[in-house]
Amino acid sequence: MATDLADVVRRGLTDFPKSLPPLLFYDEEGSRLYERITELPEYYLTRAERSIFVQRADELVDRALAVDGPGRQLTVVELGAGSATKTELLLAALLRRQAACVYVPIDVSPAALDLATQRLSESLPAVRVRPIVATHEGALPQLARIEGPVLAMFIGSSIGNLADEDATRLLRGLRGALGRRASLLLGTDLKKAPEILIPAYDDAAGVTAAFNKNVLVRINRELGGRFDLARFRHVARWNEGRSRIEMHLESTDDQRVSIEALGIVVHFRRGETIHTESSVKYDLPHAARLMEAGGFSPPTVYFDEERRFAVHLAPASR
Ligand code: AVI
Fold this sequence. Notes:
Elements: H1 2-14, E1 18-19, H2 28-37, H3 45-66, E2 75-79, H4 85-95, E3 101-107, H5 110-123, E4 127-129, E5 132-133, H6 136-143, E6 150-154, H7 164-178, E7 182-189, H8 194-200, H9 207-223, E8 232-239, E9 244-251, E10 255-259, E11 264-268, E12 273-280, H10 284-293, E13 300-303, E14 309-315
Parallel strand pairs: 1-12, 2-3, 2-6, 3-4, 3-5, 6-7
Antiparallel strand pairs: 7-14, 8-9, 9-12, 10-11, 13-14
Helix pairs in contact: 2-9, 3-4, 6-7
Bound molecules: N,N-dimethyl-L-histidine (AVI).
């Protein structure tokens, strides 16, 4: 990651406007902070999606199994699997219908995959876990070698961290690798009032602020950066035109920050920001358009009780 990190940081901080990609959040501390975010009272996404799995896992699995007709074992693939706690509900439902199954979690973090493998080996020993340490795109050639029907999961509204063009490219890649035997289970957060969305990304306990600022901590540690965290402010903004929450780090002063390993000094004006993440909030036509552009049929959609979140399930289009 070292040279990748250097390239990515150099590009983002010398660009205008300044930005850093959200992938940089997830070092060990960032992954720990993200797990805490998922438990915050304001961050409803994880609980809402989980409640859909709790209530509808059997139905989801039946629908996924129906795609290929009876008799063949379904393999479950998950992009950005993390700790796989929600997926466990689905795998348990699948094991009520077939004696064993293969689960292929994909993540850039070997630590997260180890944890998921360990947990599943205890809770669901009939699941054979075949982890892939890779980016989503990097895993596609290996996915193409899987035989039989596959349920590909991309949950947690992770798709919302991608621009539509990138999301479409990824879904197409997935569809291309898995072919007609694939179905896609996609979790998306839904568009709603900014009064609910903003606190979800700017919580009272300051965990999301720490998660955002951890990017600067990481640059200080790994690239000899001299960011003073007290001179940057976490900001969560609702961008109505693009239907997305944006996270930024705003400079509270005019300042210069040197980054030793890059041999650069970055200038900030007071109020200038580094854009660190976008999190798109969808309506149903928007999500369906993405799935269709990615090579999947019109989805069946499942909601939580408060209709805050949606899980879409669709077979590959013919
Ligand atoms: C991982 N991803 C879907 C989260 C989101 O909601 O966009 C990351 C996150 N950023 C701030 N809070 C959570």
